[in-house]
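Key result, reporting period 2: structure in, sequence out.
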């Protein structure tokens, strides 16, 4: 109904412009530019939708497997391009070869309005693996939930203007040695792109203690300021957390690839993968198993953790006021 009455305007103009043109009563005249205030970074955190996250994880799990050496990862890549398109965002494919097969990173760039050459990245891998990788690798925690959080960040942040650019990145070939992220950082270095920080969520949905659980913020010494910033955001939002800056923890994930390329990078995690931090006393029984499914995730806490990431990314990108003529 709303769409019918506003249809002509929306068809002709970008949404924000349409709101200005149609909402103003049409007649013309005066008014001056409309000032759109900078968004408070904590506001989008409160808008994170558990239903959106569940829908995205289910959508990816429904491919049965997203293993690099099979059709599932390509199908998932197409699905992700379509999900971005449904948000009005154009994704670029960044292809590379894995064992003779083409795999694609999927990238959306939201340009900064004042200093677009400075870039912040949120990145998650969308491929999966398991004990039965070619037939069943639902990879809900590893890492459909990370992908879901990138999609949710894109949904909530791209309507806003930021001083710096934000890239929403979904990598392929992670389970073969972070190959998508390695390809990306080589390209970033070759282009001389000034990436100041990356958030690379990988496994942030398995919370055996439910609301009593605490999420992990991991970085290395060079990314300690980012770890501290995310911890501060988590405190402001009332989300319990632990921090780690030992670079050997969770070594080998996409965050490591960014760090080794000189890009400060942090990750959020549900358990810091028990095999990597025995001292944490935690483990993920479904890690790289066919049992890594949506029904094992605890979404209320996951939704809060995604909110922390969204708010941290918004802070880094630095919201700015804009005007519509
Ligand atoms: Zn992973």
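The corresponding designed sequence is given below.
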């Amino acid at each position: 109904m709303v769409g019918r009455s506003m249809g002509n305007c929306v068809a002709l103009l970008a949404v924000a412009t349409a709101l200005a043109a149609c909402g103003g009563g049409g007649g013309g005249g005066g008014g001056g530019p409309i000032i759109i205030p900078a968004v408070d970074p904590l506001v989008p955190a409160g808008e994170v939708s558990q239903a959106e996250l569940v829908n995205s994880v289910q959508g990816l799990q429904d491919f049965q497997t997203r293993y690099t050496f099979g059709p599932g990862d390509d199908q998932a890549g197409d699905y992700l391009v379509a999900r971005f398109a449904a948000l009005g965002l154009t994704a670029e494919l960044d292809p590379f070869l894995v064992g003779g097969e083409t795999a694609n990173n999927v990238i959306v760039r939201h340009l900064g309005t004042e200093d677009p050459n400075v870039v912040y990245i949120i990145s998650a891998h969308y491929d999966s693996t398991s004990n039965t990788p070619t037939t069943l690798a639902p990879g809900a925690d590893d890492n459909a939930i990370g992908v879901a959080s990138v999609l949710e960040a894109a949904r909530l942040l791209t309507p806003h203007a930021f001083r710096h650019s934000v890239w929403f990145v979904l990598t392929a070939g992670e389970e073969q040695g972070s190959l998508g992220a390695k390809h990306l950082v080589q390209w970033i270095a070759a282009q001389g792109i000034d990436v100041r920080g990356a958030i690379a969520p990988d496994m942030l949905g398995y919370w055996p203690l439910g609301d009593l659980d605490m999420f992990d913020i991991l970085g290395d010494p060079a990314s300690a300021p980012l770890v501290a910033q995310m911890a501060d955001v988590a405190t402001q939002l009332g989300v319990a957390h632990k921090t780690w800056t030992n670079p050997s923890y969770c070594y080998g994930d996409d965050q490591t690839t960014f760090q080794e390329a000189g890009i400060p990078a942090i990750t959020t995690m549900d358990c810091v993968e028990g095999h990597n931090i025995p001292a944490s006393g935690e483990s993920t029984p479904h890690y790289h198993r066919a049992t890594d499914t949506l029904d094992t995730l605890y979404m209320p806490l996951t939704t809060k953790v995604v909110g922390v990431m969204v708010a941290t990314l918004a802070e880094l990108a630095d919201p700015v006021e804009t005007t519509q003529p």
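Residues 2-6+38-324 form a domain with the Aminopeptidase fold (CATH 3.40.630.10). The pocket of zinc ion is lined by residues 125, 142-143, 174, 202-203 (CB under 6 Å). This case is discussed further under Risks and Mitigation.
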